[in-house]
Amino acid sequence: MHFLVSRRMVVFGLASAPICAEQAYGQSCMQFEPRWEYVADTVMGGVSQGRIERDPTGPRDAMRLLGDVSLDNNGGFIQIATDLAQDGRAIDLSAYTGVSLDVRGNGATYDIRLRTTDLTRPWQAYRQEFQTVPNWTTLKFPFSSFQQHRTETTFDPTRLRRIGILAIGREFAADVSVANLCVY
User: Fold this and answer.
1) What does the alpha-carbon distance between residue 141 and residue 99 come to, in Å, rounded to a whole number?
2) What is the pTM of this model?
3) Neighbouring residues of 123: CB distance < 8 A, sequence distance ≥ 6
4) What is the pLDDT of residues 53-78, one digit of tens each?
5) How buried is residue 41: exposed, middle or buried, by Cβ count under 10 Å (0-12/13-18/19+)?
6) What is the rounded distance in angstroms from the CA atom of residue 155 to the CA atom of residue 148?
């Protein structure tokens, strides 16, 4: 199944309702069923192009972000993102250490970004880069390793609202798949 989008579109999945996944991961973990949405720099005049689609090579909830990032017109990103609660409210994740995600990709570097209800501007986030490889790999991102981006506000895991995967900051062909979004 293939979906082309131009600006912003909600696709696939149930609401991001947390489910227990302790047995699957062998540790205390809360897994989400994300409702990924595609967003590109076109919302601010950029010309990057992309899409999301199911990735049949991965787990049942695997989603793939594909596209071309362009720096023209002050652009430079495509992303998939999900609210952790269906209504966009904050979720208290202070009992957890970080975010875990299964990823595979084209060898490029991507960002994972967290947003809390404390952030008021769309460019503010807490971010960390990660490198992809062609095979599925589980990556763990401790909350303590996320860097503030365009904010002075300290990260507060009691106010986590949104998680995004971005291809950003340079011209390149993006191809990254994600699955098993979980906090551990």
Assistant:
1) 5
2) 0.85
3) 149, 150
4) 999 988 777 999 999 999 999 999 99
5) buried
6) 8
